[in-house]
Amino acid sequence: MSSKGQFTGMRGVYLVAAELSHLGLIASPTSRSAIGADILATDQKCQRAYSIQVKTNATTFNFWLLNKEAKKIKSPSYFYVFVNLRPKGEIEYYIVPSFVVAIKIKVEKSKKGSIWYSFSLQDAKKYKDKWNLFENPK
């Protein structure tokens, strides 16, 4: 049985894929088991390709949880799209290059020894609606 979090994540993936399609890109969600990329996208002439990791929040809006690989996986064609699904229906998108995420990732250790990796809204703010990072093909 799918959890509420899984549905939130999938909603974010399809919302981002729709936005990429609106830009004129061909966007295809990957298998849920793919590490690092939720969406693979290319321009219509297949001259530019992008890997996109989508992180979606529906309740907490000042950070997104990541995995430890976020510090290592980076490329000029790899992006994160952080999504906030606000209660009144507003959707916020932050398009952040993977190099920025790798540098700005916060690592915290809980009292019980768990390690948490996150990216803050404060660090994402200047990337709000920066869809032009995908070199708008239109």
Strand neighbour order, sheet with most strands: 1-2-3-5-6
Radius of gyration in whole Å, from Cα?
A: 15 Å
At CATH level 2, the architecture is 3-Layer(aba) Sandwich
Low-confidence stretches: none
Number of domain modules: 1
Reported for the largest beta sheet, the result is: 5 strands, mixed
**What integer is the average pLDDT?**
91
Gross morphology is: globular
Straight-line distance between termini: 40 Å
Number of DSSP strand runs:
8
Instruction: Quickly give the structural class.
Output: alpha+beta
Share of β-strand residues: 25-35%
Number of helices: 3
Write down the secondary-structure element order. HEEEEEEHEEH
Describe this structure in a few short sentences.
The chain has helices at residues 4-22, 98-104, 121-124; strands at 26-29, 39-42, 49-57, 63-66, 78-85, 91-97, 106-109, 115-120. It is α+β, with helices and mostly antiparallel strands.
Entry keywords:
globular, 138 residues, Trna Endonuclease, Chain: A, domain 1, 22% helix, 3-stranded antiparallel β-sheet, 5-stranded mixed β-sheet, 8 strands, alpha+beta
Topology:
Elements: H1 4-22, E1 26-29, E2 39-42, E3 49-57, E4 63-66, E5 78-85, E6 91-97, H2 98-104, E7 106-109, E8 115-120, H3 121-124
Parallel strand pairs: 3-5
Antiparallel strand pairs: 1-2, 2-3, 4-8, 5-6, 7-8
What does this structure look like?
The N and C termini lie far apart (40 Å). The strands form 2 sheets. This protein has a 5-stranded mixed sheet. Strands 4-8-7 form a 3-stranded antiparallel sheet. It has 3 helices and 8 strands, in the order H-E-E-E-E-E-E-H-E-E-H. The mean pLDDT is 91. Helices cover 22% and strands 33% of the residues. It is α+β, with helices and mostly antiparallel strands and 138 residues long. A hairpin with a 5-residue loop joins strand 5 and strand 6. The protein has one domain: Trna Endonuclease, Chain: A, domain 1 (3-Layer(aba) Sandwich), CATH 3.40.1350.10.
